[in-house]
Every structure is written in structure tokens, then in C-alpha cells.
Amino acid sequence: MSSVAHPGAAGIAGGVLGAALGAAVCFLAVNAPYLAERKRVNATANPRQPGTYVAVGINAVAGLVAPTLAAGLGGLAGAAFGAVATPLVVARVTAAGRLAARRSAQRAQLQAEWRVVGEVFDGQPMQIEGVDPWRAEWAPRGAEPVDLPHPTSLDETASFQRYVLSHAGRSVCVAAARLSDHSWGFYTERGDAS
After folding, report:
1. Can you list the pairs that 133-141 forms with residues at least 24 positions away whose Cβ atoms lie under 8 Å?
2. Were both Cys, which of 44, 141, 186, 188 would link to 162 (CB 3.0–4.6 Å)?
3. CB half-sphere exposure, 82, CA atoms < 13 A
């Protein structure tokens, strides 16, 4: 459960705050020229022509109302978007966290059962618990293949077949998979008594 009481609350609060701030900025930006124009008109207005002052006042009010409404509507749209988008983002982050936790648990289980030997190229000299896989006899082990992480890229998986490798009186149980045309991946089972 998320620690946020209502995931959309932050979006709503942000949108309302944005609307209020936008309205205040627009009010100040529009009112400064309006007040300056008002002083000029008052100083030069002819009392016999009162329409001059009214026309300037209407233009100033229209100039004030339109940006204020736009800022307010923009803020409310932000609030609505935040109310809808925030739970979606929280849900996606939560799902990604669950997936990462599941993968981590799977890796921990695999690490408890399997030890990665690595990825090697065909014929590259190597020993797996004293057995050279390129000289050993490979006998399939009766178990089903196991999906294990790619030895060098844990985000990828491959289907590893189980074998018993025997050479020079030694044997080892492994999981092996051809990872590309020229490379193999190897794991050994932990606790294998062979």
C-alpha cells in the first residue's frame, strides 16, 4: 500500500496553487499598465467626454480577465491532469517495483540453486570443477531444461539443458546452453555431490 493518502491530491493541490499563482501574476502584469493608463487618462480626460475613461477601463478589464481566466483554466486543467496522471504514475512505479522484487527473488532462488560458471567460446580453455568440458563426455541428465539468466546479461534468460560431464575419472553436473553460434553458458548446481 502506498504511503500517499490520495495519489491525486498532490496533482490537485499543484494545479490549484498554479491557478492562484497564475492569476496573481496576470493581475499584477495587467494592472500595472492599467493603473498607469488610468492616471494618464484622468490627467488629460475632458470632463465633457466621459467615454474616453470608460473605453480605457473596459480594455484594461478585458486585458485583465482573459489572461486570469486562461491561467485559472490552465491551473485547473493541470489539477485534473494531476488527479488522473498521478495515480497512473504511482501504479506504474508500483508495478515496476513489484516486477523488480519478483526478479530479485527469482535471482536469489537461482543463486541458491545454481552457481554461474560463465560464458565461454567454443574450444576456449577452461575447467569446471576440474573437468575440461571440451574433452569430456556429455551425458544428458534426465531432468527438464531450466531457464536461467544469461551468464553475462542478467536481464536475458536462456534455456539450459542439464548434463553430466565426465573426463579422466571426474564428473560434474552442469547446466549448459549454446548462447550464440560460437559461445556457451555454463552453470553448476550447488550442493551437487557428483
Report:
1. 133/165, 133/174, 133/176, 133/184, 133/186, 135/167, 136/165, 136/166, 136/167, 137/165, 137/166, 137/167, 138/163, 138/164, 138/165, 138/176, 139/163, 139/164, 139/165, 139/166, 141/173
2. 141
3. 19
d(CA 116, CA 174): 10
Residue 71 burial by Cβ neighbours in a 10 Å radius (0-12, 13-18, 19+): buried
SS3 of 153, please? strand
Pair 11, 82: CB distance under 8 Å? yes
The verdict on pTM exceeding 0.70 is no
